[in-house]
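If your schedule permits, I should be very grateful for your opinion on a structural question. The matter concerns a single protein, recorded as an amino acid sequence and a row of backbone structure tokens. Could you please explain, in whatever detail you think fit, how the structure tokens follow from the sequence? I set the record out below, with my sincere thanks for your time.

——
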Amino acid sequence: MFGCQQNIIKNSDILPFLEYLCKTANKIINCGIYLARQWYFKCNYITGKYDLEKELKQNQNYKFLHSQAAQQTLRGVAESFKSFKELSKKYRSGELENCPRLPNYRKKGGLGMITYPKQALRLKGDQVKIPLGRKVKAAFGVEAFWLPFPTNLDFKKIREIRILPRNGCFYVEWVYKLEPQQIELDKDKVLGIDHGLDNWLTCISNRGTGFIIDGKHLKSVNQFYNQQIATIKENKPQGFWSKRLSRITEKRNRQMRDAVNKAARLVINHCLENGIGRLVFGWNKGQKDGINIGAKNNQKFVQIPTGKLKDRLKQLCEQYGIEFVETEESYTSKASFLDDDFLPTFGEKPRNAVPRSCGNSIPAGSAPESWKPSGKRIKRGLYCTKNGFLINADANGSANILRKVSTKLGFNLNRVSRSDLTTLLRIRFWIA
């Protein structure tokens, strides 16, 4: 497993070097994409790992980059065509819903990401030497430039660095290998997660613990960003963009990445502190594409980076030995957990509730087609059960997500009580 630390470069003396590297990288990437596409169209051949660098060694853009950086950058292009090949196989076999597309060209005159392998780097003190190549040295008399090395990393573990241009900024990503940590965790202890807007993550475990990660701050950040963008673009032609818009967008994106990392860390720390060995995340594929909760709420829901948070949680689970389970969450918000309502599966016809105490599963087609939950959501955030108990609606959904997979994974939910679903600790991660 590999980790990545990202640092923004603000030193004005270094910026010209970074701009030159990324412009040249963009050109060599386009050359590689052109060659790989021609091989595919004319010969039905997907480029191999080393094919592009062998063919483009005499290219002027290749010569004006350090050889190892040019090779690594072209191997990234080859990797994207290899991914296209694998995705095409899955699409033809029915495992993938959307047809993949060939990698397309980058914008002419733009900036591309350049990658340096560890072998090309040299550490001296707290600075890392980044070579520029012989052609640059001969033409401009500059051999290399220096980047500050993060004090919290070990240079011996670094595998490569990536110089990444984004919205008028330059980032350096330090890629290193992460060793998995061996921690004693119990797979019978499980945490279920239901995601939303005001309550970004609602977490309930089968060991009597639970909490909510507040999402109102994220909504506020997005709302302010949209207001700024709308004001600047007012009366401007379609496709208008400026440096100011780039700065505003990049600031908003950094805030989103910070939120994702903080929220994921809060969830993982809870699992480690309570010995929880499984994490169940409720997720319906394509739910953002087909969401219909009103124009304003659609915008809020789509712009919240919950998918990135799910991926980050999956990465951290792998690092700490926590089993990550993703399950569809259909009808979890409608069914009553305390009344043991039957939970239909997304895409199937709903059927009437049958208590688990019957001990029998429901054969397909044997139950009536109309299905009604025992309880109902009476207002935002509040769910009323069959017996009139009022519980947190999102906590009810999170508990039902656990119930979706409890039989398959073999854990019990006996310790999830009404009190656990009523009052939960609310965590405001931006001030935690």
